[in-house]
Fold these 2 entries.
Entry 1:
Amino acid sequence: MRAPASQAPLFLAASLLLLGVGPLGCKPKPSDEQVPGAAPSAAPSAAPDAQSAEAMRKKTELLPPADVQQAANNPEGLPVYDGPTGTVRGVVRAVGDPATSTSDAVSKAKADCRMAHPMFGKLFREGEERRLADVLVAATGYKAFLPAKRDTVTLGGEGCAWERRTVALMFGQKLNIVAMDRRPYVPEFVGQPSVAQLFAMPGADPVAMVPRKPCRFLLIDSMRLYNRADVFTLTYSTAVVTELDGKFEIQGIPVGKVKVSAFLPATNAVVEAEVEVVAGQPVELSFELPFDASKQLIPANQP
């Protein structure tokens, strides 16, 4: 089944609300010079000593209270759904113009930052056959409560870049930041006050980032301001993000009619389909996200 692309701005706004976020995120993004805690140069301030770092880590890892999570994720107090479920899977491709260059944003990246240009040199990332990476695909519209299957989602930093540009969390999950090479990374949510600046160090434990409310956050690396990712803190668990193969698969969806939305934050393109989920019979979908370079308004979170 191929889902048609939306043409109306109102449809875009409605779809973003369906995803549980607003089109502009939590707060307007400040300029690079205004990013809270951003280092003025490539070198961060001295890392805190081990004892103070551990104290800061514990503060930042505190989850929102259980009643706050309940009010957002399950306001009707439904029991955990244990009925029949099905699967929606498919692929997302780009149509229209190719991604425009944003290479100026990473022009100051060091020569050994091998992932800076592949990740951020274009407005969006495409694989073979124009398959799209970093697309948020979500299934919504069912009346049931499905908790997250795990407590954390991990995002690695390697080659001076996050390993993906879109991240999906359920409110109450932690985002663990891991240094996957020999460089430190300094993650920060723009728009959410931080207890302290934390460093994801090579070989060390992950740095846990905890969103304080359901929202669309911008995750930056204070050492490299081009290194950014959209983090969607949702009030449901049935959402995934595509890799360069453009494939997605959402399992454990309650049977019945649901809406499946595909959203590319880099362009604000969104498509949607209504499907009937049946136990034991995966629903196959093919999404096409359009891009018109002559009409594109670059989101504020782009380099």
Entry 2:
Amino acid sequence: MKHFADIKRAYACSLAFHFIGLWYKWGGNNPDGFDCSGFVVELLKSVGILPRKYDNTARGLYSHFGGKKVDKPCKGCLVFFGEPIINHIEFCIDKDFSIGASGGGGFVKTIEDAIHYNAYIKMRPIKRNRHIVGYVDPFLEI
């Protein structure tokens, strides 16, 4: 029988694909528009990893899951970007690709802004000339 954490991991990865194409919104934390951390928090709340009323930034999530750091990406891991400080997070669907909400940063407040800045939830290679701070696996049971 599959371990319960593995079932949650698989469901979160499946759910992440359903959000592809949804527009990015600075500070967004619901299907009306997500920013990077809002998207990841929603995935983790949906599978019971985070409490229903939880909210945080990319940097805050890195601190929250600090005891669950891993050396390389894997299905269900979170990848953190930034230099000199963490300013972006995405959800890994395997060792090579992640899904994340991005584009335009604080300039994107409306769907028109999102269209202008090409800002939406998309799947991309993890290593794409961005400074990777590290990975955490929120599904690890410590």
